Amino acid sequence: MMSHVDFDDYLLQMTVWWRSLFPLCYILSCVQLYCASSQVPQKAKYNYSLRLTRLTRTGVQRLLNTYNEQQLGNKDFENRSLRLSSLPLLSTEFDSWLRLTDWERLRTASWDLHTYWDMLERKRKQLEGAEGEQMAGQQGQSTMTLLQSIKNIQLDLRDLMKQVSFQMSHMNSSSVNPTASTPSQNPPPSYQPPSNLTWASRVEGYIILRDLNLYLIKLARDFLLLASKIQL
Ligand SMILES: *[C@@H]1O[C@H](CO)[C@@H](O)[C@H](O)[C@H]1NC(C)=O
Ligand SMILES: *[C@@H]1O[C@H](CO)[C@@H](O)[C@H](O)[C@H]1NC(C)=O
Ligand SMILES: *[C@@H]1O[C@H](CO)[C@@H](O)[C@H](O)[C@H]1NC(C)=O
Ligand SMILES: *[C@@H]1O[C@H](CO)[C@@H](O)[C@H](O)[C@H]1NC(C)=O
């Protein structure tokens, strides 16, 4: 039978042996890995959203040039003083942007993406109407290509909306308001009867695409910030 002192010695030896096999840092890293494993997918999701945002922006830049060339007769058309009040405000104070909670950031992204999707839908319908009315041959063909490019951007925006909606439900699974985050539940924008697009209406398309391009830069920053908050 071990004496009291012997037993203490034995315990100490065991502890040392145990420590040498499983150093504290190893144990800590196991705990960390365990915690991180539930966060890696979320970080990867933000990563995906970030890449998708950048890809979409590249597409928007290309479309903006094509649109300007076709509809305004100048690839490099630019007029910064032109604004549309129905588009999301692009200039936000850095401090208030930084102070947004993750939830507010995602909710705002969801709203803004919806707005751009709707604006593109309205513009696309207008162009389609004008195309059906009077454009033919070569010009009709390039308008069709333009319409398809707008549609592709809309698909990307919808994909982004789905990502944001997923991230919101991941963050808050019990109380997500489905109408606030599901893209397909918005009422379709009111249909514009076919007519020649006026200059003002054409310029509107330029403003939408120009602001969408800038907006996607801002959105990429949002995803970068969201991803950076998930530490491994
Ligand atoms: C995110 O993407 C970058 C490359 O774009 C990659 O280097 C990094 O490992 C990715 N991170 C995660 C968590 O997927
Ligand atoms: C920009 O648009 C505004 C408002 O329509 C107009 O008054 C101004 O002349 C335009 N500027 C240029 C450089 O075309
Ligand atoms: C969950 O959603 C509600 C609204 O549906 C919101 O007010 C609340 O802040 C959300 N909670 C979190 C943790 O994001
Ligand atoms: C569109 O414009 C052309 C030329 O400017 C004109 O001949 C045609 O009648 C217009 N169509 C409509 C629907 O306004």
Automatic annotation (TrEMBL):
Gene3D superfamilies tied to this protein: 1.20.1250.10
Subcellular location: Secreted
Keywords: Cytokine, Membrane, Secreted, Transmembrane, Transmembrane helix
Record-level GO BP terms: cell surface receptor signaling pathway
Keyword Aminoacyl-tRNA synthetase appears in the UniProt entry: no
A single cellular component GO annotation: extracellular space
Compositional bias segments (type: Polar residues): 172-182
SUPFAM superfamilies: 4-helical cytokines
InterPro entries reported in the protein's UniProt record: 4_helix_cytokine-like_core, PRF/CT
Transmembrane segments: 16-36
Source organism, top-level taxon: Eukaryota
Chief location: secreted
GO molecular function: cytokine activity
PANTHER family, sorted: PTHR21353, PTHR21353:SF9
Family that this chain belongs to: Belongs to the IL-6 superfamily.
Protein's name according to its UniProt entry: Uncharacterized LOC115371692
Organism for this UniProt entry: Myripristis murdjan
Gene, per the UniProt record: LOC115371692
